[in-house]
Input
Amino acid sequence: MAEQRVAIIAAYEVLRAFALGDRQDAHLPAGFDLLFRSGLPTWLATWVSSPPVVHESVPALDLPAVVSALRPELILVLATMALRRRGEDQP
Output
């Protein structure tokens, strides 16, 4: 019972830190959507009845580096979309 209490407190603290902007992860912490949509009582009841499975965290992407590496392809895709759209507008 004490282990479950510690785990619940730890999970809540992760969610709280994320909600307050103290934690800048690339993904939402487990249970955040439930807490946001249904509130703390529902989150707590769900957590107690079936604790989430913890997966190893995937490192956040360095988005500027990804965009830089894909820049030529992104330009080509955007130009193709714009030209195709332009062709649709003409009778």
